[in-house]
Amino acid sequence: MITTIVILVLLAAGAGYVGVIGRVVVPPGHVGIVRRRFGPSDPVFRRVTPYDKRGLQARVLPTNGSSWLVPGLYTVEIVPRVDIPEGRIGVVTAVEGRSRPAGQPLARQVECDNFQDGPGFLLGGGEQGRQANTLAGGQSYYINTMLFTVETEPRTYVPPGTVGVVEARAGGIRPPHRPFGRHVECNSFQDGHAFLSGGGEQGRQLAILGGGAYYDINPALFKVTTVANVRESRDGLTVESLQEIAIPIGATGVVVTLDGAEPPRDGAAETVAPRVEGHGSFRLPWVFLAAGGRRGVQQETLGEGAVCALNPWFVRVMLIPTRLLILEWTKKTGAEAQRNYDAELEQITVTIQGHRVNVEMKQSLQIPEKAAPVLVSQFGGTTSGIGGLSHNPAPVQRFVERVLGATVESYFSEIAAAATIQEFLSRYAETRTDLTAQVRNALLVWGVEAKGTTLGEFQPEDASMNEAMKREFLAEMNNRFLMAKLEGAGTADEIDEIESRKDRRRVAMQLEAELQAEIDALGPENAAVIRIVREFAQFQVPEYIGGGDMAGLVQALPMANMRDILGRLRELRSDHQVGRGTAAPMLDQKAGFQGEAEEAASE
């Protein structure tokens, strides 16, 4: 009995001891990694086993609790939990699991509670190597660090006003004719499993990352190029090409797509691709491609003031001015002048009869928004394979040179061949009118509006011709002065004649008024007599008469002439009364006597 009791006590003491030494307590913020020392090995999982075989166990002991393990059979290593700081992500690599298929650089996702369930990962078909999914920052994870290694990487940040472009390092192989991988919805490339399981392909992606945001993107799966690391890029991207497309006021954005359906090669076909709906001003290039969008210059443009986040691998935007342009034919100097739209317009020089004459000219024009794509299509732009916003003035420069410049040059060549110096100078105003019409018609073919043509002063290169023109000018000015003077003299004569007629009318009206007053006051007969007497009073009478014939003297005296005049006056009166009758109104009688008096006075 005593022996039995002792044995039981020893057994209880031993059990207690075993219980004490087999108890494992994991402190807060740590996990316990278990290793089994004895037993059969796992034939499948040789490094980490989920089956309680000899070696490292996939399971871990939880934190802030106690566990009991058979003493001597298991050992436990206490390690810190995995903390992912804010602004970073955790990239996970599994050291145990199934082998990945050939050509698959990243392991597929397995549901395992963010890699905290080691046995679930292995039993669920987890694969060795880099994992597609990542651990979010600002959190802690109780992970078996013998099964998974975790490296932290900074989150991907795209500054405001810029875009990020993405290349997939894993996925299917895209066909050679497609420069972009198939578009797969994957939460802006933050869900690597969705990208791979959805058929994502390696290489450049159509979707971009918008500015002003952070992204949890696995750098092992995706390479992201932003303005922060673009200088390391070897595909021609620049800081400028990663900027958002902003169309300034007074311009339009002509869109050139770098991918799409093959344009027709028929020479009579359109040079500008037709409009495609639903792609949000080229923000959704996969929609554009699915709808049959064509590669090249697009009919749809980006209006002034538009701001678009576009993929520079897919779209190039050419800025074409729609504001009023004033172009000058002058000598251009300096690098900045070569970027002007009139850089190719040299000073106009006309050779007439062996004399060279320089002509100053300005032309104002305006390119409507709907005409801009045709100009880009016909006169080209940048040859770079990278898109983004292009400030290249080449399309407008070439249009100005080959259409406007050629029209002006041809016009002056024609008039120079058919005119003399004198004709050229005399028809200078007519030249401007004709040139304006020709320029307007030439621009109208391209849908461009001519606003004004200005011909300035012309300057002969020959100094002797300049002197001859000065002499001709002075002679012409003198001739104009004389002609103006002659015209002025003729005008003065006309004015004098008009003034003389006015004076005569005024005197006649005054005499008529006086005669009428006398007739009204004295009667017609008396008025006539008085008028006659006045006239005789003005006769010239000789002051001295000596010797000679007395008959001549009598004839020289006014009385004889007066007697004759009075006799004629009586005859006129008698004839007047017989013709009109005795009952004629007094007004007619007065008028008759007035006429007789005037006739007598005139005689």
Topology diagram in text:
Layout: H1 2-22, E1 23-26, E2 30-36, E3 48-49, E4 55-61, E5 65-68, E6 74-80, E7 82-84, E8 88-94, H2 118-123, E9 129-135, E10 139-141, E11 148-154, E12 156-158, E13 164-168, H3 192-197, E14 203-209, E15 213-215, E16 222-225, E17 245-246, E18 251-257, H4 285-290, E19 296-302, E20 307-308, E21 315-321, E22 325-328, E23 348-352, E24 355-366, H5 372-379, E25 388-390, H6 394-418, H7 421-426, H8 428-444, E26 449-460, H9 463-522, H10 524-537, H11 550-556, H12 558-580, H13 586-602
Parallel strand pairs: 3-4, 21-25
Antiparallel strand pairs: 1-5, 2-4, 2-6, 7-10, 8-9, 8-11, 12-15, 13-14, 13-16, 17-20, 18-19, 18-21, 22-24, 23-24, 24-26
Helix pairs in contact: 5-6, 6-8, 9-10, 10-12, 10-13, 12-13
Walk me through what this model shows.
By secondary structure, the chain is an alpha+beta fold. The protein is 36% helix and 23% strand. The chain has helices at 2-22, 118-123, 192-197, 285-290, 372-379, 394-418, 421-426, 428-444, 463-522, 524-537, 550-556, 558-580, 586-602, and strands at 23-26, 30-36, 48-49, 55-61, 65-68, 74-80, 82-84, 88-94, 129-135, 139-141, 148-154, 156-158, 164-168, 203-209, 213-215, 222-225, 245-246, 251-257, 296-302, 307-308, 315-321, 325-328, 348-352, 355-366, 388-390, 449-460. The strands form nine sheets. It has a four-stranded mixed sheet with strand order 3-4-2-6. It has a four-stranded mixed sheet with strand order 19-18-21-25, with helices on one face. Strands 22, 23, 24 and 26 form a four-stranded antiparallel sheet that branches. α6 (394-418) runs antiparallel to α8 (428-444) and α10 runs antiparallel to α12 (558-580).
